[in-house]
Amino acid sequence: MIEINLLPKELKKKKIKLELPNIKFTPIIIGVVAFIVFVQLVLSVTLMIKKGYTLKRLEAKWTVFEPKSKELLAMNEQLESLTRKVKNIDSLVAKRLSWTKKLNDLSDLMTPGVWLNSLSIDEVGGRKILSLKGSVSSSGMDEAALIGKFMKNLKENKSFFKDFSEIALGTIQKTEVKNKEVMNFSISCYFKSAE
Length: 195
Description:
Layout: H1 27-95, H2 99-108, E1 114-124, E2 127-136, H3 143-156, H4 158-161, E3 164-177, E4 180-191
Antiparallel strand pairs: 1-2, 2-4, 3-4
């Protein structure tokens, strides 16, 4: 194909020839390159030696700390175990029945003419029961009414009743002691079921 360029000479594209300078490798240039390569090798070898030395030093430190590390891990496991036990104990203490308070309430709720002969915790049909056995003697009032008043006091006292689901009258039996009529009774206080 023929190309015709009608542009004037000033506007025509000029072809640029690239010529690389003729560089002769002289001994100085070879020496400089060899020196740079040598310095690079020395630096690389120095770095590798330093890394190896640092690694050995760290491994030596680790061998010193490794038994202590295992000991710390064992102590940490013991601490976690003790923490769990303390939490369990705290939850049990929070749910624990305060017998001092319970017995004090019971004493405060006693009706004149009524006294307790025994107090025990029994288990009947899988339920725990606080069994109260007592006697009543009165010259002016009906003994059954005194027992009823005592039971009413037990049920209405929130501090005493909070741990029980039900308070029920058991047996009542009349006896005579030294020519005086005495009525023996039993009351069952059913503990709330453990959750």
